[in-house]
């Protein structure tokens, strides 16, 4: 393909605010980067009617190794599935050799990439073995990952070792360590720009144990789930600068309960937020489906804020998620590599009352590719 060109799409979501610009001129330079976005394309421009240009998608919380045991233990409660070391997940993962695990998760990661999910925060169980698997498979798939190691034994020494090797660790609960050890781990990570993610108040038992108070004191990088927290408790975490990650379908599937998702638009001004899919064994790891589901279930309680909710969800599944994971943040803007931008065919936007809402609701069914792949195919 010609390396330098101009194209026109139906709408582009520009910058970190995802500001919609209709029928923009996208100027692409010889190095396959966006040179500019504006009006006044040349008559020789390529026109892509019905296409939306947006940032690539980002899954903020994913257990990808679980994908290798899809639908195992459908009738079991959460703790019997995922508790270390007795949970069914760990028993089944230990029976799969490295080659088979790699083959299975690589196929799922390739599927994620085809849907435009090019960024992810991934818990890697099985200590060094899991780190190697996740690192190699995400790299081959072309997915930028923040890998969060999980040791085989829950001790401060084991977490510190993985933090040094991977740059990040993921805890099942704050009670994997003592409060003092958890605070030490979080403090150590901050000094070296590392990452500590932890599940918070995912279950009623954890909430009743006031795990969120320990999190407030320790200030890890990100708190995940927040299923039982009320508005004030969520806001307190946000105002402390902790990144917040919600996994609605997982919470509904395992617990029959949703977190307080109506606060999402308010959180954007306080902290970075992300949307995750959690365990790939039971929830397909497609964050576009996650935000559509979330919009549908929250919309009924906040119709007057529908567009604010849709924009918050799109940001949580793209730009904000990248920032939370501290991965290279690629937005639709000058300098962006077109290999990391997404195009999706959503013709309804041409007559839609809200392009943002249409994208959130219709993206899962939309044909899509990277902008680079689209242009190379012509």
TrEMBL record:
Segments forming a coiled coil: none
Domain Amidohydrolase-related, first and last residues per copy: 52-328
A Gene Ontology molecular function term of the record: hydrolase activity
PANTHER family xrefs: AMINOHYDROLASE SSNA-RELATED, CHLOROHYDROLASE FAMILY PROTEIN
Protein name, UniProt field: Amidohydrolase-related domain-containing protein
Native species: Pyrodictium delaneyi
Taxonomic lineage: Archaea, Thermoproteota, Thermoprotei, Desulfurococcales, Pyrodictiaceae
């Amino acid at each position: 393909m010609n390396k330098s060109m101009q194209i026109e799409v139906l709408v582009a979501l520009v910058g970190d605010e995802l500001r919609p610009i209709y029928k923009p001129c996208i100027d692409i330079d010889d190095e396959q980067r966006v040179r500019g976005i504006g009006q006044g394309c040349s008559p020789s421009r390529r026109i892509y009617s019905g296409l939306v240009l947006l940032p690539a998608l980002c899954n903020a919380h994913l257990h990808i190794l679980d994908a290798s045991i899809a639908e195992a233990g459908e009738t079991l409660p959460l703790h019997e599935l995922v508790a270390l070391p007795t949970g069914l997940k760990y028993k089944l993962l230990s029976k799969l050799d490295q080659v088979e695990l790699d083959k299975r998760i690589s196929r799922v990661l390739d599927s994620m990439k085809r849907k435009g999910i090019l960024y992810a925060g991934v818990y890697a169980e099985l200590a060094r073995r899991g780190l190697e698997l996740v690192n190699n498979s995400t790299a081959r798939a072309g997915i930028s990952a923040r890998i969060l190691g999980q040791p085989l034994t829950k001790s401060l020494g084991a977490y510190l070792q993985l933090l040094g090797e991977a740059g990040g660790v993921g805890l099942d609960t704050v009670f994997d360590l003592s409060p003092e050890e958890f605070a030490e781990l979080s403090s150590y990570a901050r000094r070296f720009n590392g990452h500590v993610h932890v599940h918070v108040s995912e279950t009623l038992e954890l909430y009743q144990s006031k795990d969120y108070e320990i999190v407030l004191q320790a200030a890890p990088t990100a708190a995940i789930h927040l299923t039982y927290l009320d508005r004030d408790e969520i806001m307190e975490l946000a105002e402390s600068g902790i990144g917040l990650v919600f996994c609605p379908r997982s919470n509904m599937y395992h617990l029959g309960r949703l977190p307080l998702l109506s606060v999402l638009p308010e959180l954007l001004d306080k902290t970075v937020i992300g949307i995750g899919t959690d365990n790939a064994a039971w929830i397909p790891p497609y964050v576009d489906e996650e935000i559509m589901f979330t919009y549908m279930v929250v919309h009924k309680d906040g119709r007057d804020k529908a567009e604010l909710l849709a924009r918050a969800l799109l940001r949580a599944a793209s730009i904000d998620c990248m920032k939370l994971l501290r991965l290279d943040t690629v937005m639709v803007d000058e300098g962006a590599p077109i290999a990391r931008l997404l195009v999706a065919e959503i013709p309804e936007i041409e007559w839609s009352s809200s392009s943002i809402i249409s994208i959130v609701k219709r993206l899962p069914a939309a044909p899509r590719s990277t902008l680079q792949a689209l242009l190379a195919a012509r």
